[in-house]
Design brief:
Helices cover 19% and strands 36% of the residues. The protein is an alpha+beta fold and 370 residues long. It folds into two domains: 228 residues, P-loop containing nucleotide triphosphate hydrolases (Rossmann fold, 3-Layer(aba) Sandwich), CATH 3.40.50.300; 124 residues, Beta Barrel (OB fold (Dihydrolipoamide Acetyltransferase, E2P)). A six-stranded mixed β-sheet has the order 7-8-9-3-10-11, sandwiched between helices. Strands 2-1-4-5-6 form a five-stranded antiparallel β-sheet, covered by helices on one side. Helix 4 packs parallel to helix 5. The longest helix has 17 residues. 37% of the residues are buried. About 2% of the residues have low confidence. GO terms for molecular function: ATP binding.
Amino acid sequence: MANVTTTPQASDPRLKLQVEQQLGDFHLSVALNLPATGVSGFFGPSGSGKTSLLRLIAGLERPKQGVITLGEQTLLDTRQGIFVPPHRRRIGVVFQEARLFPHYRVRGNLTYGMRKPAAQRFAEIVELLGIEALLERMPGTLSGGEARRVAIGRALLSEPQLLLMDEPLTGLDGARKEELLRYITRLTQQVDIPVIYVSHDAEEITAIADHLVVMKAGQVRASDKLGALLQRFDLTHELGGFDAASLLQGEVVAHETAYGLTHLALDDNYQLVLPGTSAPIGSHLRVRILARDIALALTPPANTSYRNQLSATITDFITLPEAPYTVELRLSIGRFFLRARLTRKSWDEMGLAKGMQVTALIRSVSFTAC
């Protein structure tokens, strides 16, 4: 399917903001310059300020002071007295609750507030979200996941220049959560507007985000490409929910149907073997590998059940203060990096050191389309 397009935007639809907000004893102080494309994930524990920041961007609350710009448009400048109200910001918002009009059918909910240019893409967005069969149903008959897909469609049909999603999977059970995550992942790959996705869930963020903003106590702890932040030892505590994961990306090059396996080429020299997937040859997958699912060997072992054995170099290591008997390692595999975790005893007994060649044995790999 072709990308879902929007009306022409400013030459640089980048979101830039610097805001200060006092909410009781909680102080929010944030300065960000977010990418003009892709998904920016806001990650942090409850109470870190993620949703408060999203509401300031949407115009649902006014900060004590600050500036917010989207492309060439100034949405907020407290010094100059500029405040663009929410309905004029061209920002679509998807809340934790669907907030559909109970007296309108799904079709009516989708078309309410729909801008004229979006009418040409109505069928395309409906197909993208898999809600064709829901159009004549009332909101009260929808499951939680179905209702939220409708809410996402309504937000897209408002012709937004930015889409904000505030923990849209909250409250769903495992199967419905997984289903909606697949739809949202597909959506974020095909819309041509920047998306901000707020979550405290590791799998959601790693499946969706390109850029990551880590928040803590109203402050930005770090902001960079997702893969880069996952490799930083100094963020291990803040990213505890990620369980020290690494992200790789590759191309599907073969399927072993008889064994239920898929081969993913990371580059010309390295491949991974994954659990079988229906992804077509030539498509791309994003791979998430947990540090605890990697073992190391000094030489490639024979007669082992490990399907993935990759030649690697130890580029860095650290013993974290909160885990003095564990060693965290960074491994280079061609142009990619992996994090691994060993006991201090294994590190010493194997005589490991920075710069050594080892074989990375990967127990388990999870993946999403990208």
